[in-house]
């Protein structure tokens, strides 16, 4: 059913947060999402997912561009429930496994939707935190090479002299190739999952979703989580097998883990969580090393890592990887030199 809201409706609504575009309307049954970065593509994606999968998503009642403000407004159903990050600590093992199984089914279904281009479901440009400097200016991309170049353009803008970023760009060019483009939520986090008991009743926040390379969901799921949360301590993301156990190859799998490190450095420019990200990267590397048949000499890898010697946090990753090698007796080839 079509529905428009007024200034009075928004004034009477409760905002989810000071910088959040979500408003809970006074009727207690409806949400209005409107803000500077709200796009019609999000509403189009939600409708598409509801029509083509069994994934529980709030119903979109209307989506339009307000004539007065020029901003997009999405009117949708309010689903009652508890966020998974609130519910997870109180679950027993059986509850956790029930939730994991549901998530595995939903995201396998989501990933079964594929495209020949990297874009939103309506063919509009990609949206991602990396692309915030020029929303709508990245993509759509017809090849993974073009997408990689878009990432490189975003990463290096204003950071041309950063040795770590240049190193990661080389790794991106050499390793991330030949992937399918699958439907991706792109903000998989417990705060975006609503449950009642151990039943998932809604998956929220589809503003960044679209068709991305098949590794992207996992890479983004570990980009900046609360590493001390019970969610991460239970290795839930890694237990959702199928996201990262597909045939990427050792280098690609290890490189996924580095995205967590990159996001902290490039976007947030702070040290919180970097040590955890480095340890997680080492953990993923140790898992993928079991499949590696061609391992570079340690000296070769260290020579590349030394290019970023000025960044003390990158040395944390180097140290963590070194400890992994000592434990496993193998050094995984993360990048092609």
UniProtKB/TrEMBL annotation:
<dbReference type="Pfam" id="PF01636">
    <property type="entry name" value="APH"/>
</dbReference>
<dbReference type="InterPro" id="IPR011009">
    <property type="entry name" value="Kinase-like_dom_sf"/>
</dbReference>
<dbReference type="InterPro" id="IPR051678">
    <property type="entry name" value="AGP_Transferase"/>
</dbReference>
<protein>
    <recommendedName>
        <fullName>Aminoglycoside phosphotransferase domain-containing protein</fullName>
    </recommendedName>
</protein>
<feature type="domain" description="Aminoglycoside phosphotransferase">
    <location>
        <begin position="38"/>
        <end position="233"/>
    </location>
</feature>
<dbReference type="InterPro" id="IPR002575">
    <property type="entry name" value="Aminoglycoside_PTrfase"/>
</dbReference>
């Amino acid at each position: 059913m079509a529905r428009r809201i007024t200034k009075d409706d928004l004034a009477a609504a409760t905002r989810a947060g000071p910088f959040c575009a979500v408003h809970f309307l006074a009727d207690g049954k409806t949400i209005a999402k409107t803000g500077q970065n709200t796009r019609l593509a999000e509403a189009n994606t939600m409708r598409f997912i509801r029509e083509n999968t069994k994934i529980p998503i709030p119903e979109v009642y209307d989506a339009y561009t307000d004539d007065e403000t020029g901003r997009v407004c999405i009117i949708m159903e309010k689903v009652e429930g508890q966020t998974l990050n609130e519910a997870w600590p109180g679950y027993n093992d059986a509850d956790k496994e029930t939730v994991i199984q549901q998530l595995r089914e939903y995201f396998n279904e989501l990933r079964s939707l594929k495209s020949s281009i990297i874009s939103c479901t309506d063919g509009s440009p990609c949206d991602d935190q990396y692309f915030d400097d020029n929303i709508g200016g990245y993509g759509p991309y017809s090849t993974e090479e073009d997408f990689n170049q878009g990432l490189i353009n975003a990463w290096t803008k204003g950071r041309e002299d950063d040795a770590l970023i240049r190193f990661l760009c080389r790794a991106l060019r050499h390793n991330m190739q030949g992937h399918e483009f699958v439907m991706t939520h792109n903000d998989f986090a417990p705060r975006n999952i609503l449950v009642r008991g151990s039943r998932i009743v809604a998956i929220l926040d589809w503003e960044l979703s679209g068709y991305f390379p098949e590794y992207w969901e996992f890479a983004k799921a570990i980009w900046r989580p609360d590493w001390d949360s019970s969610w991460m301590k239970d290795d839930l993301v890694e237990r959702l097998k199928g996201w990262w156990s597909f045939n990427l190859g050792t280098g690609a799998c290890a490189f996924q883990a580095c995205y967590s490190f990159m996001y902290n450095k490039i976007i947030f420019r702070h040290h919180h969580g970097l040590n955890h990200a480095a340890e997680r990267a080492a953990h993923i590397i140790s898992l993928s090393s079991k499949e590696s048949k061609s391992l570079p000499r340690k000296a070769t890898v260290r020579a590349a890592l030394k290019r970023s010697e000025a960044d003390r946090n990158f040395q944390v990753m180097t140290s963590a990887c070194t400890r992994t090698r000592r434990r496993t007796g193998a050094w995984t080839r993360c990048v092609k030199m």
